[in-house]
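User: Structure please.
Assistant: Input sequence and predicted structure:
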Amino acid sequence: MATTRFRADRGLQTRMALTMFLLGLLFVAFMAALVAISVAPLVIAVVGAGFLFFQFYASDRIALFAMHGREVTPEEAPELHAIVDRLCALADMPKPRVAIADSDIPNAFATGRSPQRAVVCATTGIMRRLDREELEGVLAHELSHVAHRDVMVMTFASFLGILAGMITRFTLYAGMFGGGGRRNDNNNNAALMVFAVMAVSMVVYALSFLLTRALSRYRELAADRAGALLTGAPSALASALTKVTGDMARIPTNDLRSAEPFNAFFFAPAFAKGFSISSLFSTHPTLDKRLAELGKIARELGQPGA
């Protein structure tokens, strides 16, 4: 990671490292189990690796296209560029490309395979709702993701889940549409192999899903902390979180549903009305958790609690 002035949280880094280690251990166990079942996982693994590489290489273009974002010049968005310029100078990091998404959903995201290829994007909804200090806190959070290469971390962390899902579907289709015949022994053996592969793959998918979501929540807390310490204004970030989360309830359900697949990128998750989910499955910590952590940072800085 390139050196920046974003402060690291050793506790969160340790938890993230442990989660990545467990994902790696799970991957090795998964491959060993597939080989033991006499499945040739290499072809599917190569296909999965190709998908992973494309997702990693084109993450900035994919996210901007999906969110209808467009890059803007300093002349088109002077205030947004001024905030990013100031934060990059404070953090001693290269300036990413700056984009705006024409959406009433109050959110922001950063993506890109490296700090040199990164893009930070704010929606028109968040720019309209937040004041300059609050928007600065949000963008500091997003630039922390860039500085710490979180897109790379989460892309590689998600590989195991993608691979397990692909193998599950491939095995299911092979079992449904594979050759029949009247050889009962062969059919029974094939059915047992399909069942074993699907069972192992589904268990691995579930475990990797939980570990990846836990890693994502640690990543968000680390970005909150790094961004708040960089600006020295944790209360502004807390205010932005409260506004964004509250205003999300006023966004049309269809808009929120279309944005939900990109929750892992967002500053705050977009959930459609009536949608409830356990914190165990969320990409982000709860609002109360994030506000409590920002309150601790404010006290560390000798400021009133957020």
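Residues 10-300 form one domain.
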